[in-house]
Amino acid sequence: MLFAEPGAHSVTTVLGSCISVCLWDPVSRTGGMNHYLLPYWNGDGLKTPKYGNIAIPMLLERLVNAGCRKGDLIAKVFGGASVLGSSGILNVGVRNIEFATSALQDAGIPIACMDIGGSQGRKVMFLTSTGEVFVRKVGRGER
After folding, report:
1. Buried b (16+ CB within 10 A) or exposed e, 44-55
2. CA distance 121 to 34
3. Domains, the chain, ranges and CATH?
4. Backbone angles phi, psi at 97, to 5 degrees
5. Which of 58, 61, 71 is nearest to 27 (CA)?
6. Cβ atoms 2, 60 nearer than 8 A
7. What would the DSSP string read from start to end of the chain?
8. Nearest to 92 by CA among 111, 117, 114
9. Are the CB atoms for 56 and 50 separated by under 8 Å?
10. In sequence order, what are the residues at sequence separation of 6 or more whose Cβ sits closer than 8 angstroms to the Cβ of residue 91?
11. pLDDT, tens digit, for every residue of 3-21?
12. d(CA 2, CA 132)
């Protein structure tokens, strides 16, 4: 999933071990959100934004094409939970978190806030015109 369009929008997603990166430009008041499942596309199958190494650059490109300056962008990162208990050697949530923080650092985009890891999923709502993000934990113990 990838969303980056000018204008005021509310974008919502639900995360487990997946990651959402919200990028926001406070100057143009424009933002976008992605939601990726795995950190790396290995070249097999379709090159889609369900992989972090596709989703983050694609979101950045779309925001720049919408009139944002890369130097004005700030990031907010969510997800990466271990919702099924111990993730074993795959540790997808941790790998997703590591990829997001590294990719944003490499792009020179500061991370303003994060709600990552743990054992519960999250419902995330991002308001693209204000940069506000609302997060609610979901899963274990909640009905």
Report:
1. eeeeebbbbbbb
2. 16
3. 2-138 (3.30.1330.200)
4. -60, -50
5. 71
6. no
7. -EEE-SS--EEEEEESS-EEEEEEETTTTEEEEE-BSBS---SSS---TTBHHHHHHHHHHHHHHTT--GGG-EEEEEE---TTS--TTT-HHHHHHHHHHHHHHHHT--EEEEEE-SSSEEEEEEETTT--EEEEEESTT--
8. 117
9. no
10. 82
11. 766 778 999 999 999 999 9
12. 18
The amino acid present at 14, given as its one-letter code, is V
Instruction: Read off the pLDDT of residues 99-124 as tens digits, 9 standing for 90 and up.
Output: 999 999 999 999 999 999 999 999 99
Taking the whole predicted model, whether its pTM rises above 0.85 is answered as yes
